[in-house]
Amino acid sequence: MPSKPPVERITVDEVLDRALIRLLIAPLAAGVKTISDRDDEWEDEREELVDPAETLRCLGLRGANRRKMVELFLGEDKADIPEPDLLRGSREQILLRFIKEGQVLLRGRFRIKGNRSNPDSIAVCDGPADILRIDHIPAVKDISKRLYAEALANAKVKGGQR
Prior knowledge:
This protein is α+β, with helices and mostly antiparallel strands. It has helices spanning 52-58, 66-74, 83-86, 91-98, 138-157; strands at residues 7-17, 20-27, 34-35, 46-50, 104-108, 110-115, 118-124, 130-133.
């Protein structure tokens, strides 16, 4: 049985309705030590259709506190929302309110050099698992947009059949 990769890239491909989310999960390629989200750093994506509770498990957020979830999905955008509304509801309800198509996250064992919102680098490490949203980081933003556009184009090529 193959070992679990140290890091996975998870793309929120589609929020189909209030009960189903399509995630694209790509394991980090063997031997990659510094992550920049280039194509050659990742193995092929697998598609998973999951409900909100399973999405939380896939993201490693099943027991996360609500504030961490809001900060992960909204980042700087949370300033526009009144504080009581940010943390209202169950984890699943918070997820459904703030998860958006096109968000890209890293999950696994990595270390961030510099600021979390705009890191100088992200390196594989042996430390504890972490999660980081990367689609808004300038260094990876353009790559993430291109990968998401390619995923949508591939779906259209298949005639809408996924």
